[in-house]
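We examine the record.
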Amino acid sequence: MGLISKESKELLNNIFYFDVHGHIEKTLPLILRILSRSPIPKDIKLSELKKTGVNGFIICAIGDPNSFRKHKVDAFTSVKKQLTKIKRNIRKTGGIVARSAADLINAASENRPVFVLGIEGGDFIEDDSERLSFVYKEGIRVLAPVHYSKNMIGSIEFGWGGKTIPQEEQTGLTSFGKTIVKKANELGIIVDLAHADEKTLMDVVAVTETPVFCSHTGPRSLQNFPRYISDAAIKAVAGTGGLIGMWPFYYHGSGIRDLNTFSLYAKHIIDLTGADNLAIGTDINGVPGNMEGYENLHDTDRLIHSLSACNLSEDEIKLVAGGNFIRLFENIMKQDLRE
């Protein structure tokens, strides 16, 4: 393990590594940290990103009620406030907000942290699709239509606090939701289905004209966890040219227990779709717990080691670590309306 870990660190230092899901520090409510029955992973400040070997990540504001209730403002106002704060912090670190695949590559060559802006939860849109155009102009390139709330776009299976949503409430993509997916396609916004239930996911796959992805999830055929997706859904997302983000989450018996399990789950997805459709989304600063052997981004070399255990070549590891997302981002931007 010592020698392999050294090799993994060296590889991490020589590749473009981009995590496909995360948040700004202090995203988790303080009360959750106080009341949690187990230690919550330490937040990663944007200013310490370079120390982790990670080049950047998708950094999401939260657009569903679980974030904006505490601010006592409406959802749209909350999202705008969060984006202002996120962009201010990125500027302080000398980082770059990527609006194109070229921005990702250029940032890496300049050794500058790079971020893609996203919003998790389309509740802020309400019934006004033009709000999607507004946030696009603000730099948003990723939208998760649903988060922890069923909304006017689609439905979920796993709610706030671990609540399982009854099947009769899992109604799928709405008519308005189809409008939002098509508008996202036209603008050049990637649709992230990580929190969607199976019906919503499959409905989106049926109408999208550009690749979609699930930023942080896992294979439900290996564990019946509502935040995971079926083999059919994995293949459907991959069939759009999209990605499945492996998620090293573990909390109170749910998720990936350790590094060996991470390798097992990753290999399952690779066997279904190939390495071209795999990425890693750790939900930076957004989870109450991670798997054994992975505390936070400072342990990213251990994820690289786990990929090696899947019998991936160095070139394939480079794809999973960041190359696949660059390709996805480039493909989406080709559909861009081009400002």
